[in-house]
Amino acid sequence: MIEIHLYGNLRALVSGSHASEDTVLTIEYIEKETFAQLAARLDLKPGDLGDCFINGNLAKADHMMEDGDRVGIFPFNMVLLCGGQHLKGHGYTREDVDVDHY
Amino acid sequence: MSDLSHKWESVPKDYETLAGRAFTSAVVNREVDPTCHPLREYNKFVISPGLLAGTQAPSSGRMSVGGKSPLTGGIKEANAGGLTGERLARIGVRGIIIEGAPPKDSKDWYSVVVRKDACEIVKTNDYAGKGLYELIGKIWKDYPVKPGIIGCGMAGQRLLKGAGVFGNNPENADPGRYAGRGGLGAVLGSKRVVAVISDATGGKAPEPKEKERFDKGQKALREALDKHAVTGKLTNAEGKPFGGLKNYGTNVLQNILNEAGGLPARGFSSGRSDTAAKISGEAVHELVDKTKKKFGDAAEGKYAHACHTGCVIRCSNVVPYENTGKLHVSPLEYESAWALGTNLGIGVLHDVAELNRLCNDIGLDTIETGNTLAMLMEGGLLKYGDGPGAIKALKEAYEPASPLGRLVSSGAKTAGEVLGVTRIPVVKGQALPAYDPRPIRGIGVTYATTPMGADHTAGYTIAAEILGIKGTVTDPRALNKAELSKAFQASTAYIDSTGYCLFIAFCVLDNDAGFKGMTDSVSAFLGKEIDVTQYGLAILKNERDFNKKAGFTEKDDRLPEFFRTEKLPPHNVTFDVTDAELDAVLKGV
After folding, report:
1. pTM of the shown model
2. N or C: which end of chain A has fewer CB within 10 A?
């Protein structure tokens, strides 16, 4: 199973959710699924997403998911307060990533 | 203040380009004896609006205060929004230096009232000993010109080291615009000054030297800010939530840092909290919407609230009481919600807002006081998670004779030592803010090496660390933590001097036109090209110089031992940056 914590407008994926409580969605683990495929399974497009985390580490599109992972998914407007979005390399906050540093 | 007199001085030539932090740190380094007692007559309290305060430039109304810190024993600058920066700039005041002190046996309290071409030191004994919510209301009645107000509350008047410098917000509804850190409220208290009141009647916006270039620059910056997902507009063209800061404030970070495993919970013992969501920016947003629906026009809760006139980022908020919709506290920032919430294991939004309101009323820095309350918990006087207990302990600060009241107002180091705690999260005597330095080591380097004592704003490497980014260096793998911290510390010092809010950095590092807009507006205002890094390093040099003369050595640039020995879950890492790497950060500066 994969435990997904949803934030901001993405909480709407779980009916009856509240911003003041954890919104957790548990879904089946699928072998050889990447993070991008997992997001697609939730019907989320790259442009919908901000900074996301897998077990506390920044999620990359091609990251291979593992059974039991904890995933935090933030919408496009919830990101670490920073500059340099284009250098993040996860391909979500900006689609025209020129260099992937990680 | 020794003879209750004042004099006007023209800005000396070598101060022409200096404002904000550059001004306060230059004055303190040149004029204050580094070995003096910070709470006696030889220390000075310096105020300076940022360079562009009062102009049309977006989010440029910040103001700095500085002096020798009673908390760290070193140089200190703290800055805030509010009204004072803009008011002083409009009447052409680059800085105010409050020096000397009334005779030892003096029992009187004073306020400094500044107007266009006039200054008065007024005896205001009726301003002392009051809660600050009441005081700012009284001052606006006594001076019905909507003045800017900064000053110290009870904690500063009692010379206690947790005291911040409060400021009124644009509506004068809350004294929560704090230049909070370093105990500078106590320095003002030692001058027996309760309030500095600035009246801008008859003033006008400062004139840039190169008007056309200035206008073009500030407009480019404004456009970049509006478009960015962090600093941008409240809603998009379809009316859906857009800008992260306007919707959720800085407290958007509560949930993000929690997912990243870098949110220090329960006295820096875990990087995750199970109650983060309850006190998050999202929870405040939901509460504001709920009370608006219930109380209609009578509801006072807000997000996208401006901390100073002309702010376009508007990351401030007004947290309402759930049962009345009236203002409970404004703002509730990430750092405060963390310090008084997650850090104490408290996950009840009302309790966290109440603790923040008490800090605002008493005149205390929220970060320092949250860490101080954590020391009470580490030391066994309170239990982690006990919101009502923490509120009761903090309310003791209203009682002048209460030893516990004095202790909670005295900062984490003092409280921790009194209570036999060995895990005291301070650097140079100042308590750590809301990012654990073990998983986020670059910020740990900033905490350790900044002349300010543990301070995240001195070199905000968080995103660069966690996400592997950095403004001007294109491949972050080639960049070590030390260089990262130095680069950020220098550019931060520059921004702290311009009057621009540090949060414009989130946007200008992403948008070349915005970055150029920032530097163009500053250079055009002065009619002189200013190099960001050189300007910033010159400030750091002043600050390091003062600290060296005050007796600081490399040994002061260290984190407490427990960060090196205790692993932080969930990443299970310690702070492993070597001493040699720390010493390399500002070597030669």
Report:
1. 0.95
2. N
Residue B457 has what pLDDT? Answer: 77
Closest by CA position to B341, among listed B399, B381, B283? B283
Interface predicted TM-score (ipTM): 0.90
DSSP state of B176: B
Q: Does the CB of B332 have a partner CB in chain A at under 8 Å?
A: no
Q: Which residue from A minimizes the CA distance to B509? A: A83
Which parts of B110-166 fold into alpha helices (H)? 132-142, 154-157
Contact (CB<8Å) B277/A20: yes
Q: Which residues in A lie closer than 8 A to residue B252 (C-beta atoms)?
A: 78, 81
Query: Quick check: B451 and B430 in contact, CB under 8 A?
Result: no
Torsion of CA B299, B301, B307, B311, to 10 degrees: -80
| B122 near A CB under 8 A | no
Q: Decide if B315 touches A, using CB distance below 8 A.
A: no
Q: How many CB pairs under 8 A join A and B?
A: 143
- A-chain CB neighbours of B475 within 8 Å are 99, 101
Domain A2-87 part of CATH 3.10.20.30: yes
Buried b / exposed e across B225-245, counting CB within 10 Å, b at 16+? Answer: bbbbbbbbbeeeeeeebbbbb
Cis peptide before B331 (omega within 30 of 0): yes
- Over residues B19-54, the pLDDT tens digits come to 999 999 999 999 999 999 999 999 999 999 999 999
The predicted-structure confidence for B199-229, as pLDDT tens digits, reads as follows 999 999 999 999 999 999 999 999 999 988 8
DSSP 8-state class, residue B270:
B
Residue located via tokens 């001076």? B143
Q: Do B244 and A80 touch (CB under 8 A)?
A: no
Closest-CA distance, B474 to chain A, in angstroms, reads 8
Helix, strand, or coil (residue A6) = strand
Residue A92's pLDDT is 54
Q: Kindly state the DSSP code that residue B4 receives in the 8-state scheme.
A: S
Banded model confidence at residue B81, pLDDT cuts 50, 70, 90:
very high
Residues whose CB is less than 8 angstroms from the CB of residue B173 and which lie 6 or more positions away in sequence, other chains included = B300, B318, B327, B330
Q: Which of B463, B378, B390, B488 is nearest to B426 (CA)?
A: B378
From residue B70, give the alpha-carbon distance in Å to each of B158, B187, B287, B367. 13, 7, 38, 16
Domain boundaries, chain A: 2-87
pLDDT of residue B341: 98
Residue B584: exposed, middle, or buried by beta-carbon count in 10 A (0-12, 13-18, 19+)?
middle
**DSSP structural state of residue B436:** -
